[in-house]
Design goal:
The complex is a heterotetramer, with two copies of chain A (317 residues) and two copies of chain B (336 residues). Chain A is built from twelve helices and twelve strands. Chain A is of the alpha/beta class and 317 residues long. In chain A, β11, α10 and β12 form a beta-alpha-beta unit. The N and C termini of chain A lie far apart (42 Å). The longest helix of chain B is centred in the N-terminal third of the chain and has 29 residues. Classes of the chains: A alpha/beta (317), B alpha/beta (336).
Chain lengths: 317, 336, 317, 336
């Protein structure tokens, strides 16, 4: 996935000289995950900025660039470190169009690795998508593999709204996929049915998609697996379609359960398709605690926990 | 008193004074209207006219402004029509932002004046990004960003100052140092002079008497020159005084006894009038004449704007995104 | 409510000299809403600190005080301005106990007015409770009137976890109630059944409680009205009990719908009491947009919108 | 070279050198163990021993430390037992925090060393609050807080410096200036010397050669004295060099060519050894002897700690609150 994102960045920079990258260690070092490797030497220090250590500043500066016709891509080294910039994201990026009557817009892309799986402990493993998804004015997208990563990022470059682009860091090097050379797009706001089945629906995204697919395959579960791809705005039609089809729903994510994405998805279903439900809507998620270092395998939803939920929901009534 | 000699600058000064009178008159009009319940809220600018208008004198049209909620005089002197400001304060259907923002949160792309937010100093990092864009595109414009002295304590001030300096960007940080952050005097905000903070970022810091239009003009002119020459940012500490309350919701008698009454010798208008008279550009009669005419103009414009109907409620839920989300469509359907 | 909170602060300061107040304009000015009026002259400048303008700093400083045996109460002037302090709240306050193996704790109280109703526009009206409720390690409480305000605050002073205390600013002066002089407590984590009825359940909190109660009374609706009082952790038992009783649920809050509290409550019900549900779970909330100045009456849920939902849910099937 | 004369200080210096050797030896041990896959991650401290241990020499036991992830030498010199550190790095069941935190994130209340977080400089505002508590309670302790030079760009640095100054608090801000923030050299982080930033807050800023234990000691001693006398905070810019990579995940050859090899004249250990020899407190043989003995001690302790079993998984979900929430109880039931 690292290469796919690198390619998307590189191709968009080639195509459009208003694209500027900024972030800590994104230049000479090529990013701590090597996502921006080689871009400094290709595009020079005016387009690839190794910034001082100030998330709030680089996000704010990025917004200022976006307002003035550039297409900044800000990298936050770990999503866990984005919170000092929350005010810039919530009160500036997400509200500029609204407050200025559309006179100013802020098409910034904020890329950041998120989630666990690299033994990063509580400050290098967070899945903070809820903080962004609750913020009207933002678009929040997250790929589940290299193909979508490039395609969604290409779409992000065409959008005119601020975008939080969450990269499941666990997948950076673990998932291999064919990625076309051309600048194809994967549309924002559209989920993907990653597996088709009749008995139940598993709704998920990001790093959990492959875990769910593996589980389903290995255990021969006849399930719809919906990869959301965009978390804000959600693809409600795709969600409702799978509910109508199976009547049994599990939502899987790494983020803590309380007000995690599962809450919103569950609520959307409970207010629209209650009559289709043949079982409770279950959530298999990270627990409501910080993310532990040593015991991370217990934190992240795994086959065992998904299968427990599957069994429960299939047996229901 | 700073010196001006060229005919052009003298003309500028006359124009600037007219803008000061207009700002002051409009300010008082809005404050009165607020007391009468005709306006919801307002942050008076009285006392800060000279520094804002002096700064504007040093700018060109293509220069960008990232200002804050106390910048009506700055807008006026940039040529922003009065009705744009009044419509914003009324939040009526002619307002650019359709009454979405509280009064005192104006903006106008046409005048290169970024729409104002409330969280203080968060415009500063944006100004830095704006300056980066200008530099990257090799344009000759500069960015002026304004904020109160209280705002120098914020994260955003620190971030913006350092970034502007590291990338040598054409930004002028104009601190409108009115001595108070609501109830906190500057001595409790920080232990040093604001201008001296510039050194921590390797940029020049200039102290100016913000009540004297020419002094601020000179300071900003120097900073603008520096910025246009590609030498980077400057911090200007324009020392002034908030003649009114923090806002129409504030009662300054709770926390301060000092005052600068209108027409007293520290009033920036009084100082400007002294300068104009010394330069023989105006006399008392002309001044009085301008003031009287302005009252009428402001009253008329205000009445006119007041008649404009409120925005259609539906507009309160538009322009959140380039396209309205399905959620919002649904929610608005439910609301209206 | 202003007096009730003032009294709670004053009494706790009298009782315990480790209680320190800090915030912008809380001293000489008595707070922009006058909540801390008179406390500076009563307790002196070492215990009532008029701070510089830096939310991140005063929250961080408060955490440091709390870690070292004091009981700081930090006022954030408007909840809308708390976001630069999010990192201190999420990564420090909420995680100190966990990361230090319990050796250090941070019993800080962060008070802040929130919500609309004072014509404050998009930056003086936000209801950001979701940002806190998604953060394990915090307690989040919000009163619906003077009695609870004092009682919950008294409980907060006894707790040893960091507490976000959200004060519905609209109620500061609009609701009158008898408030006892003594230091009674209202327990954290317990909801209150504010009205008892059989036909449906309305779950709400904060400023919406009185709106809901008025609506129910005026329209003679036979409804359970549950005032949550604490948003994290939620009183799941009280929520489930009312669902079991009525089988019809509406959730009302001012915050935007997507990942607002309604989402979590709905999800809790959908995963535990699906068989009791006789109708969809409806949410009557603020829309997914910033909060407007002029049209705020359209933003905040009102009688008309609540009654629409009531009608829909009572007619269902 | 700074001067020390008293017998007590000489003894301190010998102890300090022993701590330096222990830190260095432990550091190398952990780095090696990491290469062998026995440790998950680590941020080496090699090169920063002198400044940390010099600082510790100036403190009393009751003083509080708010350090960061590169402070193993500081812990060692505070008397933190080696196994506490190794157990943290192993994340085993003997670790105070039960393996919840990544390696390099230690803490020990007994030693007044606050548990370390990852987001840089966010310990600084806490240090200020801690200092407020000391002052409020009229205790004579001071607070030492450490951070890298890169961290001076953060919001937290600005906030903490200003607040400490406004309230005249007993805090020593010790900048461990190793010249690099991962791949960013200090020249690109900011345009001025770190010590000079102190002036923006009205506090003294002292530059010290951080590779020389006595120079840092003197600087911190002066700051501690000032703090104990109630005169407020000081910023110390201890200039050093990161001899190793940023962390075990980092490859510094990508971005820098300079190096300070072990044993070279800039190595803080070499400098300390010179001082000891000049003061006739040690000779080469004694030094070699200490080094050899230390290797053995470290090896043994490391092996011993490595045998300690991992924590019970259940502990990963405890101590989130004073009492476990019902959600977490339920979730843990589902997980285990
Ligand atoms: C981040 C933030 N915190 C708090 C406030 C509330 N507030 C509004 S104005 C103000 C004082 C600002 O003082 P200063 O920067 O000196 O500007 P002035 O109003 O004096 O022009 C405060 C605390 C705010 N708007 N933003
Ligand atoms: C707020 C924040 N942003 C980014 C990071 C990622 N990061 C870890 S260390 C580091 C560089 C820190 O440099 P410096 O402050 O000089 O300390 P040093 O590591 O050199 O000792 C960065 C960017 C972080 N830990 N916290
Ligand atoms: Mg001010
Ligand atoms: Mg460094």
């Amino acid at each position: 996935m690292v290469q796919a994102i690198n390619q998307a960045l590189s191709q968009n920079m080639e195509k459009d000289d208003s694209v500027i990258l900024l972030g800590e260690d994104v230049g000479v070092d090529g990013g701590v995950f090597r996502v921006t490797d080689g871009l400094l030497s290709k595009f020079g220090p005016e387009r690839v900025l190794d910034t001082p250590l100030v998330e709030l500043g680089i996000v704010g500066m990025g917004i200022g660039m976006a307002v003035n016709g550039l297409r900044p891509v800000v990298e936050i080294q770990f999503q866990d470190f984005i919170y000092t910039a929350m005010d810039q994201i919530i009160n500036q990026a997400a509200k500029i169009r609204y407050r200025s009557g559309g006179e100013y817009i802020a098409p910034i892309i904020i890329r950041t690795p998120y989630g666990g799986g690299i033994r990063g402990g509580l400050y290098h493993s967070q899945s903070g998508e809820s903080y962004f998804v609750h913020t009207a004015g933002l678009i929040v997208a997250t790929p589940s593999g290299p193909y979508d990563a490039k395609g969604l990022l290409n779409s992000a470059f065409k959008a005119s709204d601020p975008i939080i682009f969450l990269e499941p860091k666990r997948l950076y090097r673990s998932i291999k996929e064919e990625v076309p050379e051309d600048m194809y797009t994967v549309p924002l706001g559209k989920a993907k049915l990653a597996n088709s089945g009749d008995d139940l629906s598993i709704i998920t995204y990001g790093s959990m998609v492959s875990t769910v697919l593996d589980t389903v395959k290995k255990n021969k579960i006849n399930a719809d697996v919906l990869d959301l791809r965009t978390l804000l705005p959600l693809d409600v039609e795709a969600i409702l379609a799978t509910v109508e089809k199976t009547g049994r729903v599990i939502i899987v994510h790494e983020a803590p359960r309380t007000l995690g994405m599962g809450a919103e998805i569950s609520a959307l279903i409970a207010e629209r398709r209650i009559d289709y439900l043949q079982a409770p809507i279950l959530r298999v998620t990270g627990p409501d605690s910080p993310f532990p270092y040593k015991m991370e395998d217990y934190y992240i939803p795994n086959e065992k926990r998904i299968m427990k939920a599957v069994a429960k929901i299939l047996e229901y009534r | 008193m700073a010196e001006i000699t060229s005919q052009e600058e003298k003309q500028k000064l006359v124009k600037a004074y007219t803008a000061m009178v207009l700002s002051r008159t409009l300010d008082k009009k809005i404050v009165n209207a607020q007391r009468q319940g005709r306006v919801g809220f307002y942050t008076p600018t009285m006392g800060q006219e000279a520094l804002q208008i002096g700064a504007a004198m040093a700018l060109d049209e293509q220069d960008l402004i990232y200002g804050y909620y106390r910048d009506v005089p700055l807008m006026i002197s940039r040529g922003v029509p009065m009705d744009l400001i009044i419509n914003q304060i009324m939040g009526n259907s002619a307002d650019i932002a359709k009454g979405r923002q509280m009064p005192s949160h104006y903006g106008s792309r046409k005048h290169n004046f970024m729409s104002v937010q409330s969280p203080v100093a968060t415009n500063l990092p944006l100004a830095v990004g704006a300056a980066y864009s200008l530099k990257y595109r090799k344009k000759k414009g500069v960015v002026l960003t304004t904020f109160g002295e209280g705002s120098t304590s914020t994260p955003d001030f620190h971030a913006a100052m350092n970034l502007a300096s590291v990338y040598e960007l054409p930004v002028i940080f104009l601190c409108e140092n009115n001595g108070w952050a609501i109830s906190l005097p500057v001595e409790k905000q920080t232990r040093v002079d604001i201008w001296s903070k510039a050194a921590a970022y390797g940029m020049p810091g200039i102290r100016a008497n913000g009540n004297d239009i020419l002094e601020t003009y000179e300071a900003v002119k120097a900073a603008v020159k520096r910025a246009r020459e590609g030498k980077g940012p400057t911090l200007i500490d324009a020392i002034s005084f908030r003649m009114g309350p923090h806002s129409t919701s504030d009662d300054p008698t709770k926390y301060r006894s000092e005052s600068v009454p209108e027409g007293s010798e520290k009033d920036p208008l009084t100082i400007a009038e002294g300068t104009l008279k010394a330069l023989k550009l105006m006399d008392d009669k002309m001044i009085e004449n301008i003031k009287q005419k302005t009252i009428k103009i402001v009253d008329d414009k205000f009445d006119e704007c007041e008649k404009i109907p409120p925005p259609d409620p539906i507009t309160a839920f538009e322009q959140v995104y380039s396209e309205q989300t399905w959620m919002l469509k649904e929610e608005v359907g439910d609301i209206l």
